[in-house]
Amino acid sequence: MRWAAFLWEGASGARRRPGVSNLLVVVAAASSGGLVAYADSGSDAALEKPQLPQRKKVVVLGTGWGGTTFLRNLDSRLYDVQVISPRNYFAFTPLLPSVTSGTVEPRSIVEPIRRILEKKGGEIKFWEAECFKIDPQNKKIHCRSNIGTNLDGNGEFLVDYDYLVVAVGARTNTFNTPGVVENCHFLKEVEDAQKIRRSVMDCFERASLPFLDEEERKKNLHFVVVGGGPTGVEFAASLHDFVTEDLSKLYPSVQHLVKISLIEAADHILTMFDKRITNFAEDKFGRDGIDVKTGYKVVKVSKDAITMQNPATGDISVPYGMAVWSTGIGTRPFIVEFMKQIGQGNRRVLATDEWLRVRECDGVYAIGDCATINQRRVMEDIAEIFRVADKDKSGTLTVKEIQDVLDDIYVRYPQVQLYVKSKQMNGIADFVRSAKGDAEKESMELNIQEFKKALSLVDSQVKFLPATAQVASQQGQYLARCFNKMKDVEEHPEGPIRIRGEGRHRFLPFRYRHLGQFAPLGGEQTAAQLPGDWISIGHSTQWLWYSVYATKQISWRTRMLVVSDWTRRFIFGRDSSCI
């Protein structure tokens, strides 16, 4: 039996009284009679939906590692979320050096941000635009779109916020070296990798022209990499593989003229790695014919030559065909202006506290390369720590009193725990021994001067986090978890004791967990430094690198594309077309 039903309210043929809605329900059966019922349902107000509480507006600037990880983990039902970024995709930046050599295709490492937001559900808005000013006083940001214009024709618009998450990353630091911006390539974005790939092929094609002499060919095939960090080293290794395994077969007449130089101002490359990895990398590059110049500072880059400075040799000018600048990161211009507004104009990057909140700025958080955590120093709070621990107000601390607050001190000041480990101390008793020379009994007491002496060297263990994708990703995940529990922790705070003030902090402070780092060195060899001082170098580590980077892809689509690119390269080699 088929049934049909419909609702009719206030039709033109019905008489309607003010404030009363008429409801007509018709239910009909296919094989029997119908029933028609008419009733007054009461006032219109009774049919209105109850007003939901207005959600706080969260604006996210950037779709890099920090911003995208934050969005993927945020419960978007709790907030009105808006995302603003000049690029409408997420890029897996650790594979950018592979894009420059054609090992991996550009589209294999990017995922459209709208596809990521679609999987989240909810009503997350995205605008492809660039923020050029933050107004923390009025909680507004000024944005500009390059793909559309407003009524004034400039594409600018305002967005207000309750919470602002700044995850805009950083730009390459040129150290104001003349000629770098005009003549060097950078390697921060997918577009940068594509330009480098085309430039490499242009250098080979130019060197193959019939009217050039030998010196001109050598100049065109001299590739210079400035910066001996992980990005510069990996690019130099990737370029060497591209030349020796693929381009040497396609350009046999000029392949012997190719030269790759790696310039580093410090005494060694890969200084953030263990010395065993540094030594292995330098030895391998020497065997591969990559010219590693350590202790050289680039002072000028012209169209045809790079000028370097060394205390022993003075200024040296070297002709080149292509140069890639990879010497660290710098702050974006609008972040510099924002820092001046909030009293951080003398800093290199935005300073946040241990909860990723921008200091002296309500409702603003910063994650990733654009910010650094300004860890609170123990000696700044030593008097307050003493006060909190001295529960009996005796003016002295026993070992037991210190032990009672030690866990909270470890959480609030992680440098204390690092100091204990570095000095191989067994516990707080060793702290007291360092101040008094003896602490066999729990009743041994310390006054505030002795307490200061025991903790005087602790702040030397304060660590600054590296500007890596791993740090930004963990910060995004942590901040999303805080936002998801914002309401619950108001009643049940989970953080450590407030040293300055009463009660406890709402959240545990952010703690970075280092999961290891890789340094691909070419020739299917990679160096890895993993937790626990475990060093692995060689071909087996290269396969570990493949598995980790495939696993860390943001979607199954990019995972399959990257793996297929690697497989294609093994079978057919790298693509050398100038597309």
Automatic annotation (TrEMBL):
EF-hand domain span: 377-412
SMART domains listed in its UniProt record: EFh
Principal localisation: mitochondrion
Stored InterPro entries: EF-hand-dom_pair (IPR011992), EF_Hand_1_Ca_BS (IPR018247), EF_hand_dom (IPR002048), FAD/NAD-bd_sf (IPR036188), FAD/NAD-binding_dom (IPR023753), NDH-2 (IPR045024), NDH2-like_C (IPR054585)
Keyword field contains NADP: yes
Alphabetical UniProt keywords: Calcium, FAD, Flavoprotein, Membrane, Metal-binding, Mitochondrion, Mitochondrion inner membrane, NAD, NADP, Oxidoreductase, Peroxisome, Transit peptide
The reaction(s) this protein catalyses: a ubiquinone + NADH + H(+) = a ubiquinol + NAD(+); a quinone + NADH + H(+) = a quinol + NAD(+)
Topology term for the membrane: Peripheral membrane protein
Entry's family note: Belongs to the NADH dehydrogenase family.
UniProt protein name: NADH:ubiquinone reductase (non-electrogenic)
